[in-house]
Amino acid sequence: MIRVLVVDDQTLVRQGIRSLLGLTDEIEVVGEADDGMTALAAIEEHAPDVVLLDLRMPRHDGIWALTALRDVTAWRPPPVLVLTTFDTDTLVLDAMRAGACGYLLKDVTLDQLTRAIRTLADGGTLISPSITSRLLRAVRDRRPPGGADLPRIQPLTERELEVLRLVAEGYSNREIARALFLAEGTVKNHVSTVLLKLGARDRTNAVLRALHENVLG
């Protein structure tokens, strides 16, 4: 079972998501939170595999929670899937730069949501197709993630580019291994090398920098 924590300030939304995910055989909602601060406590208490996070919440919002999770050193935070009604360029980009591994709008189907949860639980990333082009435009129009003092990127090999393209499409290491007929350990090594060459701290940051630098073409 994939353990999920739902973070949203609206009680009906949380209950609705819990009820829908309860229809599946592979996902269990282990806890709820109504803002970023209570989300941090709930994550420590329940140790979910994936967090579903709204962005616009009173007191401590989703960006605050993402930033706080990114700075955690005592334990490894779970991947976060943003699930919101807001899709402005600024919000999408800020969420991804703050550490979100996925971004979906609340008009998704149950199948789309469960697929996204599985993808993140398996180490992948996922962005709603309806906002991918907007994210690309926003990334290329703004400063690269991390500021102007980032190290210069190093050229990637053809194999590393293949791996990066699949990472950008949301593939997990296991799925990349199957697609490229490689051992999963080999894929992990390629991903680590890609992160190093792009000066990125994680897969999401690597995709953002690759988009900004037009590495993917």
Give me the strand/helix succession. EHEHEHEHEHEHHHHH
Q: Any low-confidence stretches, pLDDT <50, length ≥5?
A: none
Major β-sheet strand ordering: 2-1-3-4-5-6
| Percent helix | 40-55%
The strand count comes to: 6
Terminal residue distance: 38 Å
By secondary-structure content and strand pairing, the structural class works out as alpha/beta
Radius of gyration computed on alpha carbons: 17 Å
List the helices and strands and how they pair.
Elements: E1 2-7, H1 11-21, E2 27-33, H2 36-46, E3 50-53, H3 62-70, E4 80-84, H4 89-98, E5 102-105, H5 110-121, E6 126-127, H6 129-141, H7 158-168, H8 173-180, H9 184-198, H10 203-212
Parallel strand pairs: 1-2, 1-3, 3-4, 4-5, 5-6
Helix pairs in contact: 2-3, 4-6, 6-10, 7-9, 8-9, 9-10
Give an overview in words:
This protein is of the alpha/beta class. Helices cover 51% and strands 13% of the residues. The protein has ten helices and six strands. Helix 5 (110-121) links the parallel strand 5 (102-105) and strand 6. The chain is globular, with a radius of gyration of 17 Å.
Brief overview, please?
The protein has 217 residues and is α/β, with parallel strands linked by helices.
For this entry, give a set of tags:
217 residues, alpha/beta, six-stranded parallel beta sheet, 10 helices, 13% strand
